[in-house]
Design a protein that fits this description.
mainly alpha; single chain; 6 helices; 0% strand
Amino acid sequence: MNFTIMKINAVISTDIIKKEKITENKISIINFSVLASAIVCGTLLYVFLKDYFADGIFKSFTSFFSDFSNKTNLEIISGIALSHLPYILLMMILGTSACGCAIIVIISFIKVAGLGILAAYFYSSFALKGIEYALLVFFPGKFVLILSVLFMMHFCTNNSLNIKSLIKGECRAENMDSLYNLKSVIAILLFILSSAIDGFTVVSFSSLFAF
C-alpha cells in the first residue's frame, strides 16, 4: 500500500516538474519573441517617424559625446548603470505581484525598442561611419544588456505567474521561486557588466569618430 502511494506521488511529482518546465520554456520563447519584435518595431518606428526622432536623438547623442570627455571612467560607468536603475526596480517589484506579468513585458518591450531606434539612427544618419560606431561602441554593451533584460524578464514573469497561480490555488507555496532575490542580484550584476562594457567602448573608441 505504501509502495503504491509512493509510486503515485512520484508520478504526480514528475508531472508537476514537466508542467513547470513546459511553462518555463513557453515563457522563454515568448520573452525572446517580445524582445526580437521590440528591436524590429523600434527600427521601423524610426524609419516611419524619422523627422520626429532625428533632432532629439542628435541633440542627446552629441551632448553625451561631448560630455563624456570631461568625466572619469567611473563616472561614465556609474552614469550608464544608474540609467538602468528605474527599470531594474520596477521589474523586481512587478515580479512580486500577481498582476505584474503583462506590465513586465510592456516595459521590457519599450526599453529594447529604444535600441532599435538608436541603431536605425546611426545607420540612417551616418551610413558606414554609423555602422562602424555601432559595432565598436554601441553593440558590445547592448548585447549584454539584451541578455540581462531577457534573464530578468524570465524569472520576474515566472515568479509573477507563480504568485497568480498560488492565489488561485493552482500551486503550492513550495513551488515558488526561492532563489528570486539571488536571481535579482545576478541580474543587477549583468546590468553593471553591460554598463562597464559600454563605458570601456565609449572611452576606448569614441575618439576614432567625429560626428
